[in-house]
Design a protein that fits this description.
By secondary structure, the protein is mainly alpha-helical. Helices cover 35% and strands 7% of the residues.
Length: 188
C-alpha cells in the first residue's frame, strides 16, 4: 500500500497531465476555428432549457419512414434474448413508469398476479413468454403510442451468460425523473 505522500504525488502528476491534455485540445479547437469559450456558453445555455420530455416519441420527425429494415439493423446492434422481452407501463394513479415481462398468460385466471400473489415471472408454472418480433421493435422505434406503451426493454443477458452490447443513457433527465422512468438513478 502506498503512503499518503506517494498518493498525493501520483494524483498531482495525473492532474498536471490532464491539464496539459486539456490545453492541447483547446489549442486544436482554436486552430480548427472553434471557440472553446463560445462552445461552453452554448452548452450551458442549452442545458438551462433542456428538460426531460415525457413525450419523447414526438421527437421522431417521420416515424413512418422508419422501416422494417431499420428495425432489423437496430436489433443487430442491441441484440438480446429473443424469447422474452418487457414493455413499459405507467401506473395510472401515480404516473410512475415500470417494465413488465410480456407473457401470453399475463392477467389470465392462471396468472398469480391476477390473484394478487407475489411471484417472479421466471418462477411461474404458467409462464408463456412472448417472443420479441420485428413489429415490436418497429413500434418501439416509431414511438407512436401516446403513453410510451410501445417502449420495450430487452433482456441483454443471454442463456449462456454472455452479453452482446452495452448501453449508455445520455438523456438529460430532470432531477427526480428516475422515479418515473428509472433513468439516471445515481447522483452523478
Amino acid at each position: 500500500m502506498r503512503n499518503p505522500i506517494e498518493n498525493v504525488s501520483r494524483l498531482q502528476k495525473q492532474l498536471n497531465d490532464l491539464q496539459l491534455e486539456n490545453q492541447v485540445l483547446k489549442n486544436i479547437l482554436d486552430r480548427a476555428g472553434i471557440s472553446y469559450r463560445q462552445e461552453i456558453m452554448r452548452l450551458q445555455a442549452a442545458e438551462e432549457f433542456c428538460d426531460y420530455d415525457p413525450d419523447q416519441g414526438a421527437r421522431i420527425l417521420n416515424p413512418d419512414k422508419i422501416t422494417e429494415k431499420m428495425a432489423v439493423l437496430f436489433y443487430s446492434r442491441f441484440w438480446g434474448r429473443q424469447d422474452v422481452y418487457a414493455k413499459r407501463y405507467e401506473k395510472k394513479n401515480t404516473g410512475e413508469a415500470g417494465y413488465y415481462t410480456q407473457c401470453h398468460n399475463y392477467w389470465k385466471e392462471e396468472c398469480p398476479k391476477k390473484r394478487k400473489q407475489k411471484m417472479n415471472c421466471k418462477d411461474c408454472a404458467y409462464r408463456a413468454y412472448k417472443q420479441l418480433t420485428k413489429d415490436d421493435i418497429l413500434a418501439h422505434l416509431q414511438g407512436k403510442s401516446y403513453n410510451a406503451s410501445d417502449v420495450i426493454g430487452v433482456y441483454p443477458l443471454l442463456a449462456d451468460g454472455t452479453c452482446r452490447f452495452l448501453v449508455y443513457d445520455f438523456d438529460n433527465h430532470e432531477k427526480g425523473a428516475e422515479r418515473k422512468d428509472f433513468a439516471n438513478e445515481d447522483e452523478y
